[in-house]
Amino acid sequence: MNYLLDTHILLWVLGEEDKDGQKLPDTVKTILLNPENTIFYSSINIFETELKRIVRPQENLPSGEELIAFCNDAGFELLRLENKHILAMKTLEKDESVINHKDPYDWLLVAQAKTEKMKFITADSKLKHYIEDCICPI
Predict the structure, then answer these.
(1) Chain-centre distance of CA 76, in angstroms?
(2) DSSP H stretches of helix in the chain
(3) Are residues 32 and 5 in contact, defined by beta-carbon separation less than 8 angstroms?
(4) DSSP summary character for residue 130
(5) Contact 88, 123 (CB under 8 A)
(6) Sequential DSSP letters for 11-34
(7) Nearest to 62 by CA among 107, 4, 17, 121
């Protein structure tokens, strides 16, 4: 199975905690350690992290270079943003509870996973309200 990691999941894999002290769940560790799975990270993950480093330097996020090196060392595959991913954002279905969800990083990552027929691993509670088979909430 092919899996795409949400940015916060990728940071958890690096050993980072989120602002609430959450860490990588065991279910994700099992997916990552299964040799039959291919794990992807996106150029969107790098963009999102770099932008957050600029806007909120106090969070001490890893640099884009560090994130890329980690992903390469971990054997993760890069999924580059393509026009078909951008255009697929308009096909995303969600229920009324998140109709105003305005996170372009989420839109792009879900659109990438949907287009490439991958499972998107996320702990984002808003994404469980999307009506997309590609979303793999943890």
Answers:
(1) 13
(2) 7-13, 26-33, 43-55, 64-74, 83-88, 104-116
(3) no
(4) B
(5) no
(6) HHHTT---TT-----HHHHHHHH-
(7) 17
What is the rounded CA–CA span in Å between residue 20 and residue 24? 12
Q: Both tokens of residue 34?
A: 């299964």
The reported pTM is 0.91
* pLDDT tens readout for residues 5-14: 999 999 999 8
Contact between 122 and 6 under an 8 Å Cβ cutoff? The reply is yes
How many whole angstroms separate alpha carbon 27 and alpha carbon 136?
Answer: 11
> Percentage of the chain surpassing pLDDT 70?
95
pLDDT in tens, 83-104: 999 999 999 998 887 777 888 9
d(CA 38, CA 117) in angstroms, rounded, equals 12
Q: Are 119 and 2 in contact (CB under 8 A)?
A: yes
* Beta strands per DSSP E along 13-105: 38-42, 77-79
* Euclidean distance between CA atoms 60 and 28, whole angstroms: 24
CA distance 111 to 84: 9
Can you list the domains of the chain with their CATH numbers?
A: 2-137 (3.40.50.1010)
